[in-house]
Amino acid sequence: MTAFPEVSAPGAPTTTTTGARVEWATVPKVNLLPTEILQRRRTASVKRVLAGAVVLTVAACVGGVVWAQGGVSAAQDDLDAVQARGATLRAQQAKYAQVPPTLAVIDATATAREQAMADDIPWYGLLSDLALTTPKGVKLDTLAVSLDAATAATTAAAAAPANADPLTPPGIGSVSFSGEAAHFPDVAAWLESVATLHGLDGSTLQSATRATGSGGLVSFSSTIKVTSKALTHRFDRKAH
């Protein structure tokens, strides 16, 4: 620590004491550099800051260009892949050119089959059921089937026309029978049994006469309506 002598006022007794400088006291400083040098230093500092800013700006621009070039390259690769895929599909298009016409033919065929088979009825099942339900003592001689002009398609789309006989159920056709029975009750039993078959309803007796002589058989004829329940609908097209 540096000691400074104290200076006394003139005429006062001179005493020499040693004092200590206070640590917190401000030490005056004087900058003796010329103003031109200070200005040059400030200018050089500003230039360095500006140069750094320019370098950062250039680096950012270069990075942006590199990033953009990378994006353009990736997009070009995707475009090339899509174009190659399109070229492959166009090359395969000729191979499947006949598919739409073929599908149209299949669709037209299915429609024609549906219209042609709209009246499909399993008559073989009817014959089997008749053999099982015909009562003993009854023998069938003839069987004739007739379908109305407006059959399955019309019947399914609209209600069946009203019949002249309110006791006769509506139907899409009829089956006529003729046969012989040992007794009149056998004929009645036949009419009841045939009316229970699936797709048949409204059995009607047309005639029943017994042959002359003892032990003569009863000859009868009857008709029964074929209802829309007899249709199989197995060729109907399913709704998409």
Task: Give a description of the structure.
This protein is α+β, with helices and mostly antiparallel strands and 240 residues long. The chain is 44% helix and 18% strand. It contains five helices and six strands. It has helices at 35-93, 99-116, 123-133, 152-157, 184-194, and strands at 4-5, 18-19, 138-147, 173-181, 200-210, 218-226. The strands form two sheets. The protein has a four-stranded antiparallel β-sheet with strand order 3-4-6-5. It has a two-stranded antiparallel sheet with strand order 1-2. A hairpin with a 7-residue loop joins strand 5 (200-210) and strand 6. The longest helix has 59 residues, at 35-93. Residues 1-9 and 152-160 have low confidence and may be disordered.
**Which stretches of 5+ consecutive residues score pLDDT under 50?**
1-9, 152-160
Adjacency order of strands in the biggest sheet: 3-4-6-5
Structural class: alpha+beta
Fraction in helix: 40-55%
End-to-end CA span: 108 Å
Strand percentage, roughly?
A: 15-25%
Evaluate the radius of gyration. 59 Å
Order of helices and strands: EEHHHEHEHEE
Name the average pLDDT.
79
Q: How many strands, what sense, and barrel or not for the largest sheet?
A: 4 strands, antiparallel
Number of helices: 5
Silhouette: rod-shaped
Give the strand tally: 6
